[in-house]
Structure formats: structure tokens, C-alpha cells
Design brief:
The protein has 276 residues and is of the alpha/beta class. It folds into two domains: 214 residues, 2-enoyl-CoA Hydratase, Chain A, domain 1 (Alpha-Beta Complex), CATH 3.90.226.10; 48 residues. The protein is built from ten helices and nine strands. The strands form two sheets. It has a six-stranded mixed sheet with strand order 1-2-3-4-6-9, sandwiched between helices. It has a three-stranded mixed sheet with strand order 5-7-8. It starts with 26 loop residues before the first strand and ends in a 10-residue tail after the last helix.
């Protein structure tokens, strides 16, 4: 990279016109009621290229603009969840364009106000493991395997290097990045990268169960709860508590749904959310 005279400071300044939803090639996009679905569909290993990353970003950003959407689900139509970056794209000539698209996709995942459920039913390597790591909730089957093998190619995963310490702690993050070793779905669950590991034949039932539990709640309250939790990451405990209380007192208290929830409790009935 040093030979082309450009520094990493340009990351995020390159322009890539977001693809229109109707023109998606590698991501299936659909919405059903309160759920938005993004299905990776680039046979056979869902290798990420610039176009596919742009579609992921555009899909998440689009769903984030719809108030009726309470949950975004990211899954795969291929045997692999995602095999990472397509090596052919990772050339010195195109590396900045690729990294810009990569940055856009993962920034969309980090910034979306909607809870994000990731379903992993196959290998998730490199960028695919990072996609899974950014899920708010993750369901996996025993077919799932996770790895950050970039170190074996003479590079390191920049996103995982920043995100993994928050999830698993610095020692385990160093282990995963420096060895590039593959871990099972159960090991990923033990480390906190996966919420649930379910048998293959129970996957659809578990996905539907989690969808039902999340979408049964008030959409704005889901957004504020996520904001309070993620907004406190990295802060000292006292500052984290203040941040959470600020969201609770300044934003949540004004919602009709928070008042409806209290009334329903007193009246011993199910709440009727207005999602506002």
C-alpha cells in the first residue's frame, strides 16, 4: 500500500454510489411485517466483493429508515455463511475501493438503530466472522465455524482487531487474531460471539422464536435499549450508568409506549404498542 502514495486516512472518503434495492445482485432483500431480511446469495461461498458489501450497507440503511421494521435478520442462502473477502478483489490497485466498501457495510451494521439478528449455518471466515461478530444476536448451528485467518496471509483483520476485545477481552482477541485458528460454534458461544447453538433441524424454529420475542416489543423501546447498551461500551462504569440513565430519562420517558407498558402492568393486561 505504501507504494501508491495513499494513506489509510482516505478510508471513508471514496465514493461508491449505493445500489438500488431492485438492482441487488448478491443480497436478497425483503421485508415481512416488522422484520427485514438480508440473505447473502453469492454462490458458493458468499465471498465478499465491492458490490456485495455495498448491497449489505444499502439494505441495512434502507431498513433502518422504516419505522415499522423492528428487527433485521442477516442470513445466507449458500452452504457457507461467508468465506470472507474475495482474494481477487484484494489487490494493491483496488484495496482502497474495497476497504471503503467494507467500511461502509460494517459501519451500517454498527450504526443501525434496529436490532440485528445474524443466522450462521456454515463457515464464517475472515470478513464473514466479522459480519457475525457485529450481530446484536447470533444463532448458529453445529455446521458453523468461525475464524480470522488473515494472519496466515500476511495481514490482520482491522475490524476484528477493534471489535473482538469488546466481546471476548484482549487475551482471547489476541489468540484468535494471532493464530488464525478455526473454532466451533459451541466454542464461539462460550466466548460470547454466539447467543444460541441449535441443531440443524431446529434452526428455523429458533429463528422464528427469537423473531417473535423481539418483535413483540415496542420498536422505539428496542432502539433505545440497544442505544443504551452499546453507547455504554468502553465507558467507565459510572459514565456508562449516566449514559444509560440519560437515554432513559430524556428519551424513553416521552414515549407513548413506555406509558402504555406501565398502564398495562397496573391493569393486568397485555400492552398494545403504538410504536411511538
Amino acid at each position: 500500500m505504501a507504494n501508491n502514495g495513499r494513506s489509510a486516512e482516505v478510508l471513508g472518503t471514496l465514493s461508491f454510489v449505493p445500489p438500488k434495492l431492485a438492482e441487488f445482485q448478491y443480497v436478497k432483500f425483503r421485508s415481512e411485517g416488522a422484520v427485514g431480511w438480508l440473505t447473502l446469495d453469492r454462490p458458493e461461498h458468499n465471498l465478499l466483493n465491492e458490490r456485495m458489501l455495498a448491497e449489505i450497507a444499502a439494505g441495512i440503511n434502507s431498513l433502518g429508515e422504516h419505522s415499522e421494521i423492528k428487527l433485521i435478520v442477516l442470513n445466507s442462502a449458500a452452504k457457507a455463511f461467508c468465506g470472507g473477502i474475495e482474494i481477487g478483489e484484494y489487490t494493491q490497485r483496488r484495496v482502497f475501493q474495497l476497504l471503503d466498501a467494507f467500511h461502509g457495510a460494517f459501519l451500517a451494521m454498527l450504526d443501525t438503530s434496529k436490532p440485528l439478528l445474524v443466522v450462521v449455518n456454515g463457515p464464517a471466515f475472515g470478513g464473514g466472522a466479522e459480519l457475525a461478530a457485529l450481530g446484536d444476536l447470533v444463532i448458529a448451528t453445529p455446521k458453523a465455524r468461525f475464524a480470522q485467518p488473515e494472519i496466515k496471509l500476511g495481514v490482520f483483520p482491522p475490524l476484528a482487531a477493534a471489535v473482538l476485545p469488546y466481546i471476548v477481552g484482549p487475551k482471547l482477541a489476541l489468540e484468535l487474531v494471532l493464530t488464525g485458528e478455526t473454532m466451533s460454534a459451541e466454542r464461539a458461544r462460550e466466548l460470547g460471539l454466539v447467543n444460541w447453538v441449535v441443531p440443524q433441524d431446529q434452526l428455523n424454529d429458533k429463528v422464528n422464536e427469537v423473531i417473535a420475542k423481539v418483535t413483540a416489543q415496542s420498536g422505539p423501546v428496542l432502539t433505545m435499549a440497544k442505544k443504551a447498551i452499546l453507547g455504554s461500551l468502553g465507558l467507565p462504569l459510572r459514565d456508562g450508568v449516566r449514559n444509560s440513565m440519560k437515554v432513559f430519562l430524556n428519551e424513553l420517558a416521552d414515549l407513548e409506549d413506555s406509558q402504555e407498558g406501565l398502564r398495562a402492568l397496573v391493569e393486568k393486561r397485555a400492552p398494545k404498542w403504538k410504536n411511538r
